[in-house]
Design goal:
90 residues; mainly alpha; Helix Hairpins; 76% helix; 28S ribosomal protein S14; ribosomal protein
Length: 90
């Protein structure tokens, strides 16, 4: 009994596929990737892209900036080291 119902369902599905193959293929071809659509990405506009670039650079160079500020504001270091740092920075 269970085998016959399974077989009948399988036959019904296969007959459905055979009857609607042309329509399924036609829909598949029309719904393919459309090349005339604009390219979309995660950014709303140029300002958001610029902001993201700026934030990445801040994260990348943050340790160097902190060290440079510390050297510049440090008054405990000998003057020779501070002058050497200022020459390197310029």
């Amino acid at each position: 009994m269970a085998i016959t119902t399974t077989m009948s369902k399988l036959l019904n599905f296969s007959s459905f596929l055979l009857q609607n193959t042309a329509q399924l293929l036609r829909n598949g071809m029309t719904n393919a990737v459309k090349l005339n659509q604009p390219v979309r990405n995660n950014w709303t506009d140029w300002r958001m892209m610029k902001d993201n670039r700026r934030r990445k650079l801040l994260v990348q160079y943050a340790p160097d900036r902190v060290r440079a500020k510390a050297l510049k504001k440090n008054d405990v270091l000998p003057a020779e080291i501070i002058l050497k740092f200022l020459e390197m920075r310029a």
